[in-house]
Specification:
Blueprint (H helix, E strand, L loop, with lengths): L2 E4 L7 H13 L4 E4 L3 H13 L3 E6 L3 H5 L6 H12 L2 E6 L24 E2 L5 H33 L7 H27 L1 H34 L1
Parallel strand pairs: 1-2, 1-3, 3-4, 4-5
């Protein structure tokens, strides 16, 4: 998952700080920062046209008015492309900026007002960045789960000529492990290794414990009937 951070002239350096925090969470190579310089904007535009990205748009004070300006600002140039091509577009409010209404924005940017926004406070910027990263990670988990199940179903349906039951079972087991491994990796990114390991252990105990308790209950019932 590639994350494009679209800066704002009124963000006062918060775009770079957010890019650094998301880079520390997801990896530096997965975060593309589009600031006011032409090179960064051109690179971000190329990435948006080549991949289906997650786009974070920083909105500072007066962002709606700046969006009407005729200059080639990142907000003006990249947001319409992001709304058309990106998987997710998240408006991020900084410096106590309000969310512009759809009628206050140009027509090509009006769709941004309908997206779910998140507010980042200066006194708790790092924690809010973690909250944003966790929300994006949950989106990644749901997408991996959905695509993994589709891939699993496709692997079962497309088996080639004369499939044997062993090949069917082997493919299902292999694909299932791939899906579980992808979900586990995404959970480690989203919630950390300790919380993920705790969840896996508790889930394993519940999965193994329910059949065991049922077996004990059945045995106890049989003994009671015999007595």
């Amino acid at each position: 998952m590639t994350i494009v951070v679209v800066g704002s002239p009124t963000a006062a350096g918060r775009d770079e700080r957010l890019g650094d925090l998301l880079g520390a969470w997801f990896g530096r190579r997965r975060v593309v920062l589009a600031t006011g310089d032409a090179n960064g904007q051109a690179h971000a535009e190329a990435v948006l046209r080549r991949r289906r990205c997650v786009v974070v748009v920083l909105i500072g004070p007066g962002w709606g008015l700046a969006a009407h300006a005729p200059d080639a600002s990142p907000a003006r140039a990249l947001v319409p492309l992001a709304l058309a091509r990106a998987r997710v577009v998240v408006p991020v409010l900084v410096a106590n900026a309000p969310m512009p209404l759809a009628r206050e924005l140009p027509p090509e940017l009006a769709g941004l007002a309908k997206r779910q926004r998140i507010e980042m406070r200066d006194h708790d910027f790092a924690r809010d960045a973690v909250r944003l990263a966790q929300a994006l990670s949950r989106h990644l988990i749901s997408r991996r789960l959905a695509f993994g199940m589709v891939d699993l179903a496709r692997s079962i349906l497309v088996l080639g000529p004369n499939p044997t039951w062993r090949s069917v079972v082997a493919r299902v087991v292999y694909r299932t492990w791939l899906v579980l491994a992808g979900i586990f990796a995404a959970m480690v990114v989203a919630f950390g290794p300790v919380a993920t390991l705790r969840f896996v252990v508790v889930t394993g105990v519940l999965i193994a414990g329910i059949p065991t308790l049922r077996w004990i209950a059945v045995r106890a019932g049989r003994r009671a009937r015999r007595a």
